[in-house]
Amino acid sequence: MQTNGITDIFFDLDHTLWDFNKNSALTFKKIFEINKLDFDVDAFLSHYEPINLKYWKLYREEQIEKETLRFSRLNDTFLAVGFSAEAQLINKLSNDYITHLTHFNYLFENTFEILDYLSTKYRLHIITNGFDEVQNTKLNKSKIHTYFKTITNSENAGVKKPNPQIFNYALQLAQTTAQNSIMVGDNYEADILGAKNIGMDAVHFDANNNLPTQNGVKKINNLIQLKKYL
């Protein structure tokens, strides 16, 4: 099945191309070693990952600032594992995390293969809610930055997905229209509904294949499956 009329493809970055959970786990292992903290990383992450998602949702909905997200996700996780951490340590770990996160740049399977394939047929772009200074480094260090004509992040757009303004900002930057574009992302609310709400088609990337298909939305669990649609 081909998606006709598409000229531009917009990708989310974290959890879609850039394997956030894998890179984040390696980063925590590194910063715990640096700070001489004896933690079982897997046990820590079992609490951290849902807490992090909760705070990203609040951030996405403009209910908290970036600094609150960075501090509170760690503070809440330490409380959950029963470790008493002073604010000074949490702030240091938060800064160390951002510093070291981009030292690890694992991508999802077939990222290069699908970008090679698509870049000969379409213009490719990024729309991300991530932080400007971190996202650009991820793209460069993972060596995928050259595939993308434009990069839109929530800090330069002034709003976050699923706000229609960030999609319209990205479309304007790419000099294209919603009708000629498609969004590929992992977050149903931010990426899929956000795109659909402005009339853009979307493909839901569910790497673990554990979410139900909703409302007939195109869904894949491996990036190479985009060939079915594009």
Automatic annotation (TrEMBL):
Transmembrane residue ranges: none
InterPro entries cross-referenced by the UniProt entry: HAD-like_sf, HAD-SF_hydro_IA, HAD-SF_hydro_IA_YjjG/PynA, HAD_2, HAD_sf, PGP-like_dom2, Pyrimidine_5'-ntase_YjjG
Taxonomy, superkingdom: Bacteria
Identification of the protein by name: Noncanonical pyrimidine nucleotidase, YjjG family
